[in-house]
Amino acid sequence: MDAHLWTPRSDGLVGKPVRRKEDARLLRGEGCYIADEKIDGMAHMAVLRSLYPHARILAIETEGALKIPGVLGIWTGADAAADELGGLPWERRPPNVPSEPPSGDPSIGQPQPVLANEVALYLGQALAVVVAETSHRAFDALEAIRVDYEPLDASIDVRTAAEGGSQELWPQSPGNECFGFCVGDSAATDVAIARAKHVVRLSSENGRLVQNPLETRGYIGLWDPHDERYTLHAAAGKPQTVGRALARDVFRLPEDRVRVITKDVGGGFGAKNPLYPEQALVLWTAKKLSRPVRWLASRGEVFLADYQGRGQAADAVMAFDAEGRALAFRVRALADLGAYLGPRGSTAPNMWRTMGSSVYHFPVVDYDIRAIHTHNMPTCPYRGAGAPEAVFIIERLMDMAACEVGISAAEIRRRNLVPSSAMPYETPIGTTLDSGDFKHAMDRAEEMACLAEYATRKAGSEARGKLRGLGYGNLLEACGAGIADRAAISCLPDGRIRVRIGTMSNGQSHETVYAQMLADCLEIDMNSIEIIQGDTDETPWGMGTGASRSMTVCGSALMLAAGELVETGRKFAADMLEATETDISFENAIYIISGTDRGVTLFEVAARAIEAGAPLERGLEVESKYDPTAATYPNGCHIAEVEVDPETGAVTLENYVMAQDVGRVLNPMVVEGQLTGGVAQGVGQALLEWNMKDPESGQLLTGSF
Q: What's the whole-model pTM score?
């Protein structure tokens, strides 16, 4: 198989809207989420959280709470420090940090303690845990704990925190700047702006979002004293990286001493991927009590304790000539990291370096991006992970420029698109777009939006006393680069194919799409394929799901493994058929001597592999790794049409269309579901969601739906 290109069969399953294999099980109520797990002797954990965004913890009094019947134990940050538990490390290296410091190095970003000791640095930070026989008893005990706080001034607003003279959270981050970087040519941008006919400026706040997956976070911790090994059942998108960090950084153990098992995950899109304090806490308390411990987040806790998304403030300038062609683009952005550099807190700010010019040709750019500590919950990637922040600024400036120049919003975009003839195109930020026909995407979106009748629809709205507007959004993402992963295929004599894959589905239909691909490669029934994911004993090398990389990385690894499986089996088949390998062809899962009817099936070959010494449970097995050398750049054009009631401000989304270049469509039904889900999340942010805090007290004002 060509390692660089795989062409699906025209009569195969790839490209077809195959129904999801997962759905039958899930619709019958046979899914297994953390709340469904039943383990003998399981106790329940509740977390005491800081009532202030910044406070000194003078004392935590637990005597009364410990007397409540059913309470098994209460532990504080002092206990965690006494047991020498490590903190939660940053994992994704900031862009300006040299490669020498290991992940979690406090000189770059201070690790977050699993329980705050002496000082709380954000509202909702974990201070203590209660474990009881029931969750109700645990919550009763929380209410009986008394904390003596000394409230301190808090920096909630990222712009204020970045100003000179503001209170600094960490000595290693002077001016509260954890890291920063510049991209482009500042001097050339100055010149271009000075000679521009039109200059537009934007000051924006892309507010923090609470990610709110359908299933809240939850974990179960177990300790095996015989094997001296922890097991964590987790609603996690990256179980392997969580397990490695728990072992290495929190408990300081060999990586194989922490096993993580993930079964079904009820949504995530970033919220469930990183390491959290509660994962360590259920394991720590399970060992102390010698019994399983479960924690399930309440919906209210999600608003306080889940890593948040977005959170960027920016001042941007875009310069144009008299005809509306862009001359320069400048951005000064402040990314709100929160009190700690989260495990992947550097990801979103770094997106300016990878897709910060989107689908447009900017002759020069000048980006100055600074990541700032505040007294807020840490941020980590949420769907798009930095791309929506950049796209919003670019598209808003395009609209402003259209008004300034006196042309339509569509026309100013068309005049500045990178043409398909320019591909591959090197952007001013140094990345190379390998392909893309951005004009075609706009053409298709405008066709679907029925723009010819827009004036009539607008007049109808005005006749009813309403306003009607049309908005464009061109976009580009950079996906899949920088992380390698693997796939292992085991072929068994009984006709089963077992795939061990490094990703973990949290709604992306992995069980279906991987099976479609492999079924076409091996020419077998996709129902004979079992996808094994989410268990670090099965896939200790896995990297989990994130960065829109499952199919581009693990899908590619799977295709390479499929080709290797066929070739490995060919050697056994040649021996079984007493022929040379070059005379053996493979078709419909059968090895045949060319020009004859003599052959053996793939599964008979698996039996021979076991006879030759392969493990019984593995059969004919191969493993392949794929390490992408560059990103992919999915792109598209979205058009929204809204009606607004000027008296109430109520917005009605009348129509929404999108033309999206997703590359090869493996399953159109799944792709459409992913895209419409993304639109729903985007509309939610635009119209309904904003994590608001009182600017004086730092208290959360939006603590529920």
A: 0.94
